[in-house]
Amino acid sequence: MATAVTHIAALVTNDPSLGDGPLGIVHDAALVIDGERIAWVGRTADVPATDNRVVAEGRAAVPGFVDSHSHLVFAGDRTEEFNARMSGRSYTAGGIRTTVAATRAASNNVLHANAGRHVREALLQGTTTIEIKSGYGLTTEDEARSLSIAAAHTDEVTYLGAHIVAPEFADDPAAYVELVTGPMLDACAPYARWIDVFCETGAFDGDQARAVLTAGARRGLVPRIHANQLSYGPGVQLAVELGAASADHCTHLTDDDVAALAGSDTVATLLPGAEFSTRARYPDARRLLDAGATVALSPDCNPGSSYTSSMAFCIAVAVREMGMTPDEALWSATAGGARALRRDDVGRLAPGARADVVLLDAPSHVHLAYRPGVPLVSAVWRAGELVR
Ligand code: NIG
Ligand code: FE
Questions:
Q1: What is d(CA 67, CA 89) in angstroms, rounded to the nearest whole number?
Q2: Could you tell me which of 118, 172, 261, 264 has the fewest CB atoms within 10 Å of its CB?
Q3: Ligand 1 center to residue 247 CA distance, Å?
Q4: Which enzyme class (predicted)?
């Protein structure tokens, strides 16, 4: 049974052949949802007859947000760490251990419910596709169960056994890399599509990151990487060399790093929630865009460095602090995220695409940045199902 959504003030399709500008915006628009897919997009005046009709009454519509980076399999929280940081202490990779301990101690039911609650929280704010990483287990058993829990909530599952060196291996990081690329990989690969590594001082160096990603690639997992978050380093160059789908964070980039990203298919995924919540300098989206790199945005939802699931918040920060135009930020939060996940069925609203549609209580997508902190998402369809 098809549903027409009509009288949309401005519909962002992300398909320039369907409307104005790079976002392919159609004014006084309508779309038809048939089953899980978009069946038709055009002007309200031309909409075909359907059984159901939803009148958008002058609201804007955008594709569901595509969040390509989250850490939702965890227990506990790190309120105290955040509170201390906001009172003057700096952020290091060390706090991750707190969440590892809480996650290991939690039951499968608690971890499953916690992940589900955050996926739902993101969905109600317009995120209709979400990637979920492991990385708070750091034993073969705890990483494998983290991934099986992630897989219950999404198809976009990432093995991040190399988040930090597990505490038991603090004196022998090489042995931990052997575990992550050996028995742990064997146990985890069946659940995952992607492999990730935190390439940073205090986590894994360039050689270790290369060993992790190439071992994953041999098992059919596609690389993505936490790169250049806290300092300059080899992560971005490694990502490009290995053909990673995405290099995430990209806060400290040399001109060579920017050029490498611009000359590649590796998406630069910017995670401004992390800089917000660690009071650090934001990545320079303008520099990446001007060089010709593809940019995605994600909240990086995790209990330590960025405890937000709000893509709208990231759009507002990207526009205010990172040199993005409202159009660029919207594209990066939708089509950019889809690129980072190598998906072409989401992140756009054109015939054949998955019917992931967000209606905003605003006449234009620009309001996402113009009205920061205001809950503008008023209706959400995911794969054709009205979920909000
Ligand atoms: O993306 N950078 C590494 N991992 C997370 C932080 C995780 C944590 O602090 O628990 C991030 O920022
Ligand atoms: Fe992250």
A1: 29
A2: 172
A3: 14
A4: hydrolase
The answer for residues whose C-beta is within 8 angstroms of residue 107's C-beta and 6 or more apart is none
236's CB contacts (< 8 A; 6+ apart) are: 227, 228, 247, 250, 253, 257, 260, 261
pLDDT, position 89? 79
**Residue 68: which of 328, 314, 341, 320 has the closest Cα?**
341
Q: Which amino acid is at 210?
A: R
The CATH number assigned to the domain with range 66-340 reads 3.20.20.140
Q: Return the ligand number nearest the Cα of 278.
A: 1
Q: Which atom of ligand 1 is nearest to the CA of 248?
A: 1
Confidence band, pLDDT 50/70/90 cuts, at residue 365? very high
Atom of ligand 1 lying closest to residue 95 CA: 9
**69 Cα: distance to centroid of ligand 2 (angstroms):** 6
Residues 6+ apart with CB under 8 A from 166: 100, 138, 139, 176, 179
Cα 305 to ligand 1 centre (Å): 5
- Tell me the whole-structure pTM to 2 decimals: 0.98
DSSP letter string over 308-364?
Answer: ---HHHHHHHHHHHS---HHHHHHIIIIIHHHHTT-SSSS--STTSB--EEEESSSS
Instruction: Spell out the CATH class of 3-63+347-386.
Output: mainly beta
**CATH 2.30.40.10 domain extents, the chain:** 3-63+347-386
Q: What's the pLDDT score for residue 101? A: 97
> CATH 3.20.20.140 occupies which residues in the chain?
66-340
Is 90 exceeded by the pLDDT of residue 209? yes
